[in-house]
Design goal:
The complex is a heterodimer of chains A (about 450) and B (about 650). Chain A is an alpha/beta fold. Chain A contains 11 helices and 21 strands. With about 650 residues, chain B is of the alpha+beta class. The longest helix of chain B is centred in the middle third of the chain and has 24 residues. Classes of the chains: A alpha/beta (about 450), B alpha+beta (about 650). Bound molecules: zinc ion (ZN).
């Protein structure tokens, strides 16, 4: 029943019998007295033995059916509806920036039915909630997707890449993609490959605290992202997130070298083994890294937006045998990215399963679960056996980036051999030739 | 008419909200211990912005705070806060111990405990919570408290987290310590009672005693705070926040009642003049005031600021009018300016005094097209602050005909209050979705209900019986932070309990009046001095001097203080020698007065001993010596050489 959202079973029966709807003012007589309040939705996880009322003071309280003697509707209420505030008028003379909404925490608010944070605020809402944006660029918000980032699929990467490609033709100075943080690193890598040679900055922005909170990091991340998209001197795909727990500094990461490294902190994202592309501090770009592609380069760019999702990422661990790999092969997986131990090792059992996988026409790649550093299949015997079997070591490529790149390589080549060759090439800064002591 | 009489006559009502920190082991939503950090080595900086409620509206108090453009710096120490306080980690579940204590308070106050506790977010974006909201949950509805044999109704019992501690503030930023954020508080909101300041104070005292009787709430300055909702007939409810010391409470009530009556008087004067509304016009006035004699305005202009003149129709002469002592509309408007980071205002009733010339006033009136009965309000300062303040100043001036505007005020150290921000609206409460609702099982409630604390009155009676304390002293100890300490020491030491009690509660007060820092006379210091007296290392007469020396930081132990001051207890041989010497000198007196010589001799010995001897001991020895002496004199009939 729509107007008793979240209530079920006994509570639903009691409320329907009383003719109550969400938003009605109820007078509830309990064993100890009368409580008056507005009926609010019950979280879907809640039981069927309580009714939740919002008191006049704004507090919610749960009343048990066991103590409830009667419920009566005192006044019919209006269903709460979200009224977005007015958008500021665009200023002239500013760069045009396309802001693409995909859902996630940066564009989410509390779902009062489930009690959870879910995607609901549109990118348009963000623009009106953060009027400062209109001082930085002329924002043109657009909702492409409205999904949680854990539901992101390769097909979404394709449509996102094509939309950015059109945006380049439409003459935008830059593109901002708002995205949930959980798989933001994967999407950043996907766009980095699909948009190789893009002449403008494409900045992915997320938030670790949802934008319906006063302390959300969405605001500063978005302002920095829009500002980089509008006027940074470099092009390519980047991620803009907090540099530390303070709001004044935003790190700009390269799309292929970035990883979510903390479950909840604002500065969860790190650039692994490479310097930050830049730091945005109080409205200015600082410490811009050397060697980034320049804005405007790559005229005649066309996105390579195809992805073939038939790749898998496998983390080797003690007690693993070959059964998972055999199952993957049966399930149609064409490329296997392995997170090996240390320099890139797996057990003898797994080695033989990988050999069989490759013999049957699949391709296999090695990365390390150490998180940082090169893989090297020449140092130990196990490694040499894997190399002989045709496993391609991917140097210091991040495992997640390698997985995404494998999907992209499969989608843009005729066969697995060509895909393997493409994997070994440095396409978008995913492999670095030199690392430094620190 | 005094404010007190006025309060009674004007039907003043005061609703008390008491916030009491709980003495749980951990904070409400994380595993941090509850501790005050002296050192705060780490910091980060944040900005908060208002967010929309479920209905799409914004809270006016939140919008006001955001408009100030303040940034917040949070200082922290890992000994007292973690990622949760920094809003870098989701809150953990409600602390069980804190919930139990708060439930115990609810049961004690006969409140009806809800079946399911829902934690809410109350939007507060003055920076005092890193999240921009305070987490709070209603546990109990209704109930009552007994005050002077009568019932005062309880509206609600709420469990909530304390805010961060403000440690510094300037025009553009505030600094907060995170050690206090997340400390569990129980908030008890009482039904409004009649606005008699003394009665309100006694209600607060009774509630404080009831809370302390659980033995599970924190003690010491800042662990209990009172907020007041004050209204008089014909006015609106004004919230006064943060009364930390109970003795201030009657003053704050009296001031607030008198302030509200004064504002109503201004409104009726305005109505007598025939003004139902106040019309305002605004002009930039730095040109007119470029070389004004007003130091405040010229200073602001010299720093590159701006000056604005607001003309408010009908308020001429009413800005400076003082219907009650210290209550003026001009002061109210100035507080709004100050809440926006400005120095204040200059209004036309005080132009001559403030150095604004007649020709300047005439020019301003011409520019504003203001008639003679209009008040002019000048405000000057940095352009952004002035631009922010002007609409609020206009709103305040326009509220004059309605008397008392609903607003949130802060209590001052002197027992007055000053404007903080508009009253928050209903659009400030959201469900805290990171914390699932908590069912209050009947068994749990029954278990906390069995922990019925000893009533304050019963405890006073027990102290009188068990420790032979006077009524006054027993009450003082129970109202102090040292009730548990007293009982422990009274049992452990051989000293008279009344001595222990007065040393704990009277002595620190006396020394504080002398200017000895309160922080120097903590529980540990008091206990060490009492133990030294108990062991006979110092005489009880030396205790004040020893405490003074330790309180001022001049000595670190009672022994050291006694040594420095020459107050070490005399051994029995020296004391006997001293008594002999005094007897010898006073022989004539004894011959003359007999036993009547005891008192002067006693005084002499104590003076000579200068705190190095225990009075009871001296009295015992002297009595014996005097008896011997008189017997000797009778026997020999000779005078001693
Ligand atoms: Zn903590």
């Amino acid at each position: 029943m729509e107007d008793l959202a979240g209530y079920k079973g006994r509570a639903l029966r009691v409320l329907s019998r009383a003719g109550a709807s969400i938003g009605d003012v109820l007078e509830s007589r309990t064993e100890w007295g009368t409580v008056e309040g507005t009926l609010v939705p019950r979280y879907e996880g809640g039981d069927d033995r309580h009714v939740v009322l919002k008191l006049k003071s704004g507090y919610n309280v749960g009343l048990s059916l066991a103590t409830l003697k009667s419920v009566a509707v005192k006044a019919k209420g209006e269903k709460p509806a979200f009224l977005p505030p007015r958008q500021p008028r665009p200023r002239s003379g500013l760069q045009r920036v396309l802001v693409i909404g995909t859902g996630g925490t940066i564009a989410s608010r509390v779902d009062y039915r489930t009690g959870a944070v879910g995607p609901a605020i549109s990118a348009a809402d963000l623009n009106s909630l953060i009027p400062e944006l209109s001082d930085v660029a002329r924002i043109e918000p657009e909702i492409l997707l409205n999904i949680l980032s854990e539901n992101m699929e390769p097909s979404h990467w394709s449509s996102l890449s094509r939309r950015v490609g059109r945006g380049v033709r439409e003459g935008y100075s830059g593109v901002v993609v708002t995205h949930g943080t959980d798989t933001l690193g994967y999407t950043a890598a996907a766009l980095s490959f699909a948009l190789r040679g893009v002449p403008i900055p494409v900045v992915l922005v997320g938030a670790q605290r949802s934008s319906d909170r006063p302390s959300s990091d969405a605001t500063q991340n978005l302002i920095a992202g829009v500002s980089v998209a509008a006027s940074a001197p470099f092009s390519g795909v980047y991620v803009a997130m907090h540099l530390c727990e303070s709001d004044d500094s935003i790190a700009i990461h390269r799309g292929t070298r970035v990883r979510k490294n903390h479950t909840s902190r604002r500065d969860a994202f790190v650039s692994v083994d490479v310097p930050l592309a830049a730091v945005w501090r109080k409205g200015r770009l600082e410490s811009v890294a050397d060697g980034l592609p320049k804005r405007g380069e790559g005229v005649g760019f066309t996105p390579k937006a195809r992805f073939d999702g038939r790749a898998a990422l496998l983390k080797f661990h003690p007690s693993m045998d070959g059964s998972l790999i055999r199952a993957a092969q049966k399930g149609g997986v064409r490329a296997l990215v392995i997170e090996g131990t240390g320099l890139g090792h797996v057990s003898a059992k797994v080695t033989s399963a990988v050999c069989a996988f490759v013999k049957a026409g699949g391709v296999a790649f090695m990365t390390s679960q150490c998180g940082r550093g090169m893989v090297d299949l020449n140092v130990y015997d196990t490694g040499r056996q894997l190399a002989k079997a045709g496993v391609t070591p991917l140097k210091d490529m991040l495992a997640e980036t390698a997985l995404v790149k494998a999907m992209w390589a499969l989608g843009n080549t005729k066969n697995t051999r060509e895909a393997a060759a493409l994997m070994a090439q440095n396409i978008a800064g995913e492999m670095t030739p030199r690392r430094f002591p620190r | 008419m005094t404010a007190l009489e006025g309060g009674k006559r004007a039907g003043a009502l005061v609703g008390l909200e008491i916030h009491q920190q709980l003495a749980s082991a951990h904070k409400l939503f994380c595993a941090c211990p509850i501790a005050k950090s002296e050192e705060l080595p780490f910091s980060f900086e944040r900005r908060l912005r208002p967010s929309q409620s479920e209905t799409g509206g914004m809270d006016p108090a939140a919008v006001f705070e955001f408009a100030k453009g303040m940034s917040n710096t949070y200082l922290w120490n890992p000994e007292s806060s973690c990622l949760v306080e920094a809003d870098e980690e989701p809150p953990h579940g409600l602390d069980d111990e804190a919930l139990d204590i708060a439930l115990q308070v609810a049961v004690m106050l006969h409140s009806n405990v809800v079946d399911e506790v829902h934690v809410m977010r109350k939007i507060v974006i003055d920076g005092s919570n890193t999240t921009g909201f305070q987490r709070t949950a209603v546990l109990g509805l209704g109930g009552h408290l007994e005050v002077e044999g009568k019932r005062v109704g309880v509206q609600s019992v709420t469990l909530e987290e304390d805010a961060a501690r403000l440690v510094g503030e300037d025009r553009s930023s505030r600094r907060f310590a995170l050690d206090r954020q997340g400390v569990p508080l129980v908030e008890v909101a009482l039904d409004p009672v009649k606005g008699d300041p003394e009665y309100v104070a006694s209600v607060a005292l009774s509630l404080g005693r009831a809370l302390r009787s659980t033995g599970r709430v924190a003690r010491g300055l800042g662990t209990i705070r009172q907020d007041l909702n004050v209204s008089v007939m014909g006015g609106r409810v004004v919230e006064v926040k943060g009364v930390q010391k109970l003795p201030l409470l009657p003053k704050v009530v009296a001031y607030e009642v008198s302030r509200q009556l004064g504002l109503i008087a201004v409104a009726s004067r305005l109505s007598e003049r025939g003004f139902a509304a106040v019309e305002c016009t605004v002009v930039d006035s730095q040109g007119v005031l470029a070389s004004t004699g007003s130091r405040a305005i010229r200073g602001a202009l010299e720093k590159g600021g701006k000056a604005v003149c607001i003309a408010a129709g009908g308020l001429g002469g009413l800005m400076g009018w003082e219907p009650h002592p210290g209550v003026r509309l001009g002061r109210e408007v100035a507080e709004v300016a100050r809440a926006n980071g400005l120095g204040g205002i200059v209004h036309s009733d005080e132009f001559p005094k403030q150095g604004v010339s007649q020709s300047e006033e005439a020019e301003l009136r011409r520019l504003c097209k203001a008639s003679a009965d209009a008040a002019l309000v000048l405000v000057a300062g940095p352009a952004d602050s002035v631009d922010r303040a002007v609409p609020q100043l206009i709103a305040r001036l326009k509220a004059a005909p309605s008397g008392v505007p609903a607003e949130t005020r802060g209590a001052t150290e002197s027992g007055e209050s000053r404007y903080m921000r508009p009253r928050p609206g209903a659009q400030r409460m959201y469900p805290e979705t990171d914390i699932p609702e908590v069912k209050v099982e009947r068994e749990r409630l029954a278990a906390v209900g069995r922990l019925v604390p000893e009533r304050w009155e019963d405890a006073v009676e027990r102290y009188r019986r068990t420790y032979r304390l006077s009524l006054d002293l027993a009450a003082k100890v129970l109202d102090s932070d040292y009730a548990e300490t007293f009982e422990r020491l009274a049992r452990k030491l051989k000293l008279e309990p009344s001595l222990v009690a007065s040393t704990l509660v009277d002595l620190p007060q006396r020394l504080a009046r002398e200017g000895v820092p309160e922080s120097g006379i903590g529980e540990l210091t008091l206990e060490r001095v009492l133990v030294a007296v108990d062991k006979g290392e110092i005489a009880k007469e030396a205790a004040p001097d020893v405490l003074r020396s330790m309180g001022r930081g001049e000595s670190r132990s009672p022994g050291e203080a006694a040594g420095k001051l020459g107050l070490r207890s005399m051994d029995s041989a020296s004391l006997a020698r001293l008594i002999d010497a005094v007897m010898l000198k006073g022989a004539a007196l004894v011959d003359q007065k007999g036993e009547g010589a005891f008192s002067p001799l006693m005084g002499e010995v104590m003076a000579e001993a200068r705190g190095r001897a225990d009075g009871a001991e001296v009295s015992r020895l002297l009595k014996g010596r005097l008896a011997d002496f008189m017997a000797e004199r009778k026997g020999s009939g000779r005078s001693v050489r």
